[in-house]
Each structure stands twice: as structure tokens, then as C-alpha cells.
Amino acid sequence: MTVLIYGGGAVGLGLASFLLNSRVEVDIIARENTVAALRVSGLLRKGLFGSYHVEPQAFHAFSSLEEVPRRQYDYILVCTKSFDSLPAAQDLARNGWLFGRNTRIVLFQNGWGNAEIFASMFDTKRIYSARVITGFRRPAPNEVMVTVHADAIHIGSLFGGSPTELEEL
User: Fold this and answer.
1) Which of 49, 58, 76, 153 lies most in the core, judged by the most C-beta atoms within 10 Å?
2) Across the chain, what does the average pLDDT equal?
3) What's the Cα-to-Cα distance from 144 to each of 15, 122, 152, rounded to whole Å?
4) Which of 72, 154, 81 is nearest to 117 (CA)?
5) Do residues 147 and 136 make contact, with C-beta atoms less than 8 angstroms apart?
6) What is the pLDDT of residue 163?
7) How far apart are CA 17 and CA 146, in angstroms?
8) Rounded CA gap, 158 and 58, in Å?
9) How far apart are the C-alpha atoms of 165 and 156, rounded to whole Å?
10) CB of 82 within 8 A of CB of 107?
11) Pairing relationship of beta strands 25-29 and 2-6 according to DSSP bridges
């Protein structure tokens, strides 16, 4: 399974750490200071689920999609703040080579309205939304701490997509 995490903040890095621990191939799009720290020191997760460190050679981090080698992903997890939904959707849409026939976009963002932004640029069958009731904090650019966990992540579609499409994830 190949996953692109678009947004290397607290939620994005937290999700990346769990996916990497499950042996998933992960690429991360993040700000330059985060990318630099990830490339040098890897990714460190601490907190409720224990400590886990991923060496920098176990994943890839990029500051833009233009740096990503041409490959298609099974899942693209959008982990930006809601106010960055439009630029994120536009950036992903400009780089259609990221998408295979079955690539799914999963929005790990707070609030309503994000899915509609993506639906204006992508087939709604690709778009899913996630509910996360887990607290993530970022004490350093390459470090994430899990501070609270109230329930499992739930993923579904606001557009009638089947949740079985996401079983692997």
C-alpha cells in the first residue's frame, strides 16, 4: 500500500507514524523546516501509544509535489488545516499523475465544507472524510506526541461511497 500524506503537521505526522509502523510505504508533503528535520532525524512519536522512531531512510519527505518522483498512490490523506483546503485541492488536481484508477482521497480535516471543495475538482467516488478524536501535538518539527485518544478513527463518504473501498487503509 502506498500513501501520500499531504500536510506534515501534528495529525499528518501522527498518521504517518502509525502507517509506517504497519509497514506502509509513506511519502509526506510538509513545510521545508519539517522536511529538513525528517530527512536528518527521522520521525519520532511519543505519548499514549508509546515511543516509536522511524529512520529517515524508511520514508520520503518533500516540500512540494514537484519534488515527488512520478508515482501513483493508493491513498492520499489530506491533513491540512481547513483554510488550506482550496490550495491543497488545486495542487493535487494540477498533479493528476499522482492518481491511479483507484486512488482515494481521505480528508483528515476539521469541519464541514472541505469535501465540497475537493468535490469541485475530483470525482466524488474518490473522496472520503475521516473523524479523528485523537489529540496530536508537535513539540518539534519531526516529533509528534499523542496526548489523548477518545475513539477509533472513522472514515466514510459524504457522497455515498462504499466504506469497503477503504478496508485496506
Assistant:
1) 76
2) 95
3) 10, 31, 18
4) 81
5) yes
6) 83
7) 11
8) 34
9) 10
10) no
11) parallel
pLDDT at position 165 is 85
pTM of the model: 0.95
How many Å separate Cα 13 from the centre of its chain? 8
Pull the grid cell for residue 120.
Answer: 469541485
Percent of the chain with pLDDT over 90: 85
Q: At 111, list the grid cell.
A: 469541519
Predicted pLDDT at 29: 98
Task: Pick 165 or 59 by higher pLDDT.
Answer: 59
What are the structural domains, with CATH classification, of the chain? 2-166 (3.40.50.720)
C-beta separation of 30 from 6 below 8 A = no
72, 101 Cβ separation under 8 angstroms = no
Cα 154 to chain centroid, rounded: 15
Look up residue 76 and give its amino acid: I
Which band of pLDDT confidence, cut at 50, 70 and 90, is reported for residue 162?
A: confident
Output the nine-digit C-alpha cell for 99: 492518481
The amino acid that residue 123 corresponds to is D
The C-alpha cell at 105 is: 482521497
Alpha-helical runs (H) found in the chain: 10-21, 32-41, 85-94, 114-119
